[in-house]
Design brief:
single chain; about 450 residues; alpha+beta; Rhopdopsin 7-helix transmembrane proteins; Heat Shock Protein 90; 2 domains; five-stranded mixed sheet; 14 helices
Length: about 450
């Protein structure tokens, strides 16, 4: 065997070994996707194909039978192709049918194949090498060929049944690549089969091709399967994660609005109602006790002024249309509105080379955290100023929001909705949050999040 042929067989094994590892990773991450739900069969097939390809190289370097008994490798190959055939067949089954019959199908195919192999080896006293080679040929014809073709057709069928039309259009090139390479794998197993002894060849009428380039051809087919599978499933997974993130964002916004609406009802409306009752009590004493009436009117005015301040804070808190700019202009926009609505002094500092956050969802999570922290300051802190520092580090973004208010421990607001929302958004960002506070020393939110 030439160096090019050896490298071809090694590449054949390496590509399918990579496919097996990739399938294991994608199967773990993509269980919610119907196309990837039973990828374990495909992973087992890829690993078996890789081991058999590498065995052929090592068998040439070692004396016969030294590496493994010659009867063992066909078992590996047959098991791999049974996995491929089961994977192809399950694409035509409903989930309920698969659960009931897949294991039985695998056991039946394995039992039939192993029994026939053992019977041929020790029952009819046929030459061991002839049985091994014939078994490989039959495995390719009866298992690999239908397995590859059924997988190609079944994946195409499943994609039409389980994917939205727009999503399928986006991953159509990757799906086509999988379908073509899987069908090619099946068809090549009709022609690219290692030779067997002439009597057996004439007996079964096999059309056999043995070429130095076969390893490279198998490697190319395996690479096509791997690339198509990775591109299609990662795109689907990204769409699923984006949808989940959007749902979580809408849920967080709904919680914000519910909380603020409840606070409006419990605080502002009751304050206005109390002011109305106080004014009603003024009417009977306007003429009889003007001084008392004047004092009560003064208290009403003070209450209404406090209510106006609360309303202005809640107007700021209800702003759910987060700017779509990058973080720096977005935070400047929030601080400008905060100052207008609360009259508190604000400072904003940017440290490091600015790095854009390309994900709009991540930008909005960070801006919502800033908004929530500012709303807590306006409502609870009794502060005079707020400082925000945005630091662009090498691997992460650091955001520090601090005030000079009365501190969190005195107000006992750590279990409120605002901080719960901040912590939830921090979790969605895969970030870390540290809150520092002491009575009379204000509150500091220290948030660190990765760029992606």
């Amino acid at each position: 065997m030439t160096i090019a042929a050896v490298l071809g067989h090694f590449s054949h094994g390496l590509v399918f070994f990579t496919l097996g590892l990739t399938v294991s990773f994608l199967h773990y991450r993509s269980r919610r996707i119907s196309l990837a739900r039973h990828l374990g069969w495909l992973g087992g097939f890829a690993m078996g194909e890789a081991l058999y390809a590498w065995y052929e190289i090592l068998a040439m370097l070692l004396p016969a039978g030294r590496l493994l008994p010659v009867v063992v490798p066909p078992i590996v190959l047959v098991s791999a192709y049974i996995g491929l055939l089961v994977f192809g067949l399950q694409t035509f089954m409903s989930e309920e049918t698969y659960r009931r019959r897949s294991r039985t199908l695998w056991l039946a195919l394995s039992a039939i194949s192993l029994s026939a192999y053992v019977l041929a080896l020790w029952g009819f006293h046929v030459d061991e090498n002839v049985v091994v080679r014939t078994t490989e040929v039959l495995a390719r014809y009866l298992l690999a060929f239908p397995g590859g073709v059924l997988t190609a057709i079944g994946l195409r069928r499943q994609s039409y049944q389980s994917l939205d039309g727009m999503l399928r259009a986006r991953i159509r090139p990757a799906l086509r690549l999988i379908e073509i390479t899987m069908a090619t794998f099946g068809l090549l197993n009709l022609v690219m089969v290692p030779g067997v002894d002439r009597p057996v060849s004439r007996l079964f009428g096999f059309h056999l091709i043995d070429s130095a380039v076969t390893g490279w051809v198998w490697a190319a087919v395996g690479l096509g399967i791997t690339v198509g599978l990775v591109r299609s499933l990662t795109t689907i997974q990204h769409e699923v994660e984006t949808w989940v993130e959007d749902v979580e964002r809408l849920q967080a916004m709904a919680e914000d609005r519910e909380r603020i609406g409840r606070d409006l009802h419990d605080g502002i409306i009751q304050s206005i109602y109390a002011a109305g009752l106080l004014l009603e009590s003024v009417i009977p004493v306007i003429h009889t006790d003007p001084d008392r009436a004047q004092g009560q009117v003064g208290r009403v005015i003070d209450n209404l002024n406090y209510t106006i301040q609360d309303i202005r804070r809640y107007i700021f808190d209800l702003r759910s249309d987060m700017p779509d700019d990058d973080l720096q202009p977005g935070i400047e926009h929030l601080l400008r509105d905060f100052h207008v609505n609360t009259l508190l002094q604000t400072e904003f500092e940017v440290v490091g080379a600015v790095r854009p956050i390309h994900s709009m969802a991540r930008r909005r999570h960070i801006l919502q955290i800033v908004r929530e922290a500012l709303a807590n300051t306006a409502k609870h802190a009794q502060a005079r100023w707020v400082r925000v520092r945005l630091t662009y580090d090498t691997d992460s973004l650091n955001l520090v929001i601090s005030d000079d208010g009365v501190g969190m421990e005195k107000l006992l607001i750590s279990k409120g909705y605002g901080l719960r929302n901040i912590r939830e958004r921090t979790r969605l960002l895969d970030g870390t949050l540290r809150i520092e506070s002491a009575p009379g020393a204000g509150v500091t939110f220290d948030l660190t999040v990765p760029y992606s």
